[in-house]
Structures are given as C-alpha cells and as structure tokens.
Write the structure tokens for this entry.
Amino acid sequence: MKAVVCTRYGSPDFLHVREVRKPIPKGNEVLIKIHAATVTMGDCEIRRFHIPVLFWIILRAILGLTRPKPGIFGQEYAGEVEAIGNRVTRFKIGDTVFGPTTIRLGAHAQYLSIRESYPNLFRTEKMTYETAATITTGGVNALHFARKAKISPGEKVLINGAGGSIGTYAIQFAKAFGGVVTCVDSINKLPMLRELGADEVIDYSQRDFTKNGKKYDVIIDIVGTSPFSRCLKSLNRNGRYILGNPTLGGMLRGFFRSMIGSKKVISEFAGYDRKNFEFLRDQIEEHKLRAVIDKRFPLDQVADAHRYVEAGLKAGHVVITVDHGQ
C-alpha cells in the first residue's frame, strides 16, 4: 500500500510517499480502507517534535528517540471496514467509520489497522468521508472546550485562534449555547468567521483584544498565544479562561489563580468518549453543525499540506484525499 513516511523529525521535506506492507488486523482490530484524513497543526508539531515539556519524554519514548518510529503520521481518518479480526463484534465488512488513530498515528496511508474501540459508525449518504475526518480533532476538542466553559445565554465569549480546525467548530457551539461571540484571527479568515455566526471579529495583527477595555465571561485560547495576566484582567467576575494549548507554566499558574479567586482557568484535555463522537456525528448528519474545509490535498502531496498548515494559512480544515485506484 501507499503511505507517507517521515524519515526524520524536522522539515516537511522528510515526508516521502512509499510502498509499505499493508497491515493485517489482529483479533481485536479492524482494517480500514482510508478515504480521507487531515493535516492539523498538531501533525506539524509532531513532525517537528515541537512538544510541550510536560509530554516530551513520554512522547519521545513512544514515537522514537532519534527518528519517528511509527513513520506514518495522521491523527484522524474516515473510511470503510475492509477486514476484521476474529474477536471483533462491533463492526462488519463495509461499515463506514471515522475516528482517532490515538498515539499510534498512521492515517496518512491507504490502510490502517486499529482496535475496534476507536472507530465510530456514520452513514455516507448523510455525511462525506471528508467531513467525517474532521470530527476527531476539531469537533471533539471544540465541544469539550465549550462545555467546560459552561456558556450561558447572553454571555460574552471570545475565541482566540478561531479560524482553525477547533475554532470553526467552537464558534458554532458557543453560538448554540447562546453566547455573544468575538473571534480573533488573521484578516483573511474574518469573513468566514462572520459567516459562521461571529458577532464581532478582530484581526490580531491590528488590535490586541486584551487592551480594548472590553470584558468577557469566557475566553477560549485555542492557539495558546494570549497573555495570561491580561486575559484574566479581561474577564468578568466568575469568568472562565480556557487554555486550549497549555504550557506547563500556564497550567501551574492557572491552578494557583483558580484556587485564590473567582475566575477559573481550565486546561483539561478532551478524551475519546464515544458518546461525544456520536453526538458530533448526529449534529452534522442533521445539518446542525458544519465542517469548514479549506483545501484538499491528495495523499502524495501531504508534504505540501504540512507547509500550508504550518504557514498559518488554513481556514478551517485541510483534508487529505486517499485514492485507491481501480
């Protein structure tokens, strides 16, 4: 099968399309014929190994000390079940599925073998493979952050880094919960953010939202660039500051500040709860939630997709389409 193999940590130039052995599912695994995957900023960070200190040693041991041990990156996929192990009970051949690869990665390939606990069913007549592939990172994390923020109708919500995979879903959840939403990102993404329902948009290169004198009930910082102290000052009493991409220092400061004041700093990560995946699937299939897909790249152009994402250009999701030929 074809797969994109990373031979060294660092540049996208180390990503190469190669023929590798097609996986054989173990007893509790399903073999998935992948039709779509994604490239996120997280994929780029793993490729460069630009990882927070808190997780550096653990992930280096898992992913490889001197070079990427799995070799094939990709954190989320959508496809169809081609074969099942002899202990699999949840799926049958032909089922359409999406889900996370977890720490094993491997979605940038024609096939993936993964434990049956991770894929989730969907119906192709109601949702495309490309849309399904965006749920695992963007959808799940956005839902998690919005729920942790406990947004009430009429509350003022600011989302920093609103134009990416997580942010484009987070806007929709914040609006669905009744929030009055301000979105911060680069100028090229602002029209799209308005289309998604943003009540106000801010070009971060022109205005600093922590210096505009406005107060918010919730600040969700997805990209991890907002100044910690000034964000706390920009919150109303009992406000919530969600650290979507926290550093170790930010987590420690947040824990301390949450203990001594009315404002709460939250840096809890999203988990792989199947109920959340099913909820997101249903919301999309019922047209209550939409995926924003910026660009599509074929599997043999994954390196170009990495360059595009790393440049901060993407608005929403970048999807990898996987062709299996005839």
